Amino acid sequence: MPRFYPNLVTTARLADPAEQLTAVRILRDADLPGHWAVKDSFSTLDLAPLGFDLLFDARWIRRDAAPDLATHSRLRWVRTSEGNRLLPGALFADPDIAMFTGTRDGEVVAGGIANRAENVVGLSNVFTEVGGAVSVWTDLAALTAMTFPGLPLVGYETGDDLAAAVDSGFQAGDPLRVWARAIES
């Protein structure tokens, strides 16, 4: 898995999470090398007894397709086209992935990643300098709508980032959790 992404994601809400816990237990016991994580998409699992730490609680966010959005910040936005030390170059060649960076006076001060799926675009890894978060979320929604027209945006956020996303027009939805476990190699 790419760094900072979960190895296991729950994709169905089960009345009895025993099946999901069994899958996590099997992976835990498989002696996998390195760090790994579980995204509990429905915030229904308690993985602490299995040796996981809760990284964070978050909320799903959603914004309908909005073809009439325009950027509002005074940042210069570009679609990033080269790999770096954290992300492999192949990601930048994928037409379903768009990485945006916003600069001011030549310095990168904001950014985010849009990932198109069949009927939706995920918006993640949003970052910004202090004080400009709502404008950055608005700009990224506009840039994503221009790049992948007609598709709703989804993601998940917590804390101040969740507040900025909501203030920019996203709707907060159900909770989710991300758990992590360091495995000694």
Q: Determine the CATH topology of the largest domain.
A: Aminopeptidase
Which blocks of ≥5 consecutive residues have pLDDT under 50?
none
The radius of gyration over CA amounts to 18 Å
Beta-strand portion reads 35-45%
| Amount of helix | 10-25%
**How many angstroms separate the termini?**
16 Å
Q: In CATH, what is the homologous superfamily of the largest domain?
A: Gcn5-related N-acetyltransferase (GNAT)
Average pLDDT for all residues: 86
Q: Please, how many helices?
A: 4
Could you give the count of β-strands? 9
The tally of domains stands at: 2
Shape: globular
What would CATH call the architecture of the largest domain?
Answer: 3-Layer(aba) Sandwich
* Secondary structure category: alpha+beta
Provide the succession of SSEs: EHEEEHEEEHEHE
Main sheet: strands, sense, barrel: 9 strands, mixed
> For this entry, what is the oligomeric state of its chains?
single chain
Description:
- This protein is α+β, with helices and mostly antiparallel strands.
- The chain has two domains: 8-57 and 175-183; 65-151, Aminopeptidase (3-Layer(aba) Sandwich).
- It contains four helices and nine strands; from the N terminus they run βαβββαβββαβαβ.
- Strands 1-2-9-3-8-7-6-5-4 form a nine-stranded mixed β-sheet.
- Helix 3 links the parallel strand 7 and strand 8 (153-157).
- Helix 3 packs across helix 4 (159-167).
- The longest helix is centred in the C-terminal third of the chain and has 15 residues, at 133-147.
- The chain is globular and about 50 Å long.
- The model has no long low-confidence stretch (mean pLDDT 86).
